[in-house]
Design a protein that fits this description.
With 143 residues, this protein is an all-alpha fold. Helix content is 85%, strand content 0%.
Length: 143
């Protein structure tokens, strides 16, 4: 039974499977590292809430981190002409998490939030003081 199935499939199925393996291996070994490295530098969207130094670190290291942790998923992503993106998106998210500590993303975000909070606090303090001055001025002058 197996021999009959192999004889029938050998004419057309094995060349298709072989072609798919060649296509994937070319992507795995040659094309994917170049595509991911170039895409990660060119299409990285800078976060305006982060300092330039942190954005530069992410842009430079993102491609290498993806290739180190998920070359197989990235090759599948590029070999299917970016149609099979879900495993690659998981690898990309994991790469961002791994680079969080390396590039100091969470520290920079914490600093930015702290700065915004202190600015909002200063604005509220100024508002409170001006309201108190207006109250006392109105109380003392009657206007």
């Amino acid at each position: 039974m197996f021999n009959v199935l192999l004889e029938k499939c050998a004419d057309w199925l094995l060349p298709i499977i072989g072609g798919c393996l060649v296509w994937y291996s070319v992507h795995y070994f040659a094309l994917t590292p170049r595509i991911i490295t170039i895409d990660s530098k060119r299409f990285y969207v800078q976060d305006s809430s982060l300092p330039n130094q942190v954005n530069k670190c992410l842009r430079e290291r993102l491609g290498r981190q993806v290739l180190q942790t998920g070359l197989m998923e990235a090759a599948l992503y590029t070999a299917t002409l970016k149609h099979l993106a879900e495993p690659y998106q998981d690898v990309l998210a994991n790469a961002y998490v791994a680079l969080d500590e390396t590039c100091g993303v969470s520290y920079a975000r914490r600093k930015a939030l702290e700065k915004k909070r202190s600015e909002a606090e200063a604005i509220n303090t100024i508002k409170n003081v001006t309201e108190k001055i207006k109250f006392w001025r109105k109380l003392l002058t009657g206007k």
